[in-house]
Amino acid sequence: MLKRKIINKLEAWKRTIANKALLIKGAHQVGKTTVVRQFAKANYKNFVEINFEQHIITLTY
Fold first, then answer.
1. What is the pLDDT of residue 2?
2. Residue 39, exposed/middle/buried by CB under 10 A (0-12, 13-18, 19+)?
3. In the predicted model, is pLDDT for residue 3 greater than 90?
4. Cα-based distances in Å from 55 to 52, 58, 59
5. For residue range 13-52, what is the model confidence (pLDDT) as tens digits?
6. How far apart are CA 7 and CA 38, in angstroms?
7. Is the pLDDT assigned to residue 6 strictly greater than 80?
8. Rounded distance, CA 27 to CA 51, Å?
């Protein structure tokens, strides 16, 4: 799979000391959810996904 430019920004966010919350906004159907899931699976053992549009919470272990 191609490495998107956003992955570099997500990796920089992960390295920051502040560990602030992450909010990704953008147009529909551009791959926001896919890239965040891909990043989370590659960098964390567990992650929680909260989708405010669909009112879904997903816990992945």
1. 64
2. buried
3. no
4. 5, 10, 13
5. 999 988 788 888 889 889 888 999 999 999 999 988 877 7
6. 9
7. yes
8. 15
Structure tokens at 28: 């529909």
Question: Which residues have C-beta within 8 Å of that of residue 39, sequence separation ≥ 6?
Answer: 7, 10, 11
Q: Following DSSP, what letter does each residue of 8-60 receive, concatenated?
A: HHHHHHHH-SS---------TTSSHHHHHHHHHHHH-S-EEEEETTTTEEEEE
Residues across the chain: 61
The C-alpha atoms of residue 53 and residue 61 are separated, in whole angstroms, by: 23
Report how far residue 44's alpha carbon sits from residue 37's, in angstroms, rounded to the nearest whole number. Answer: 10
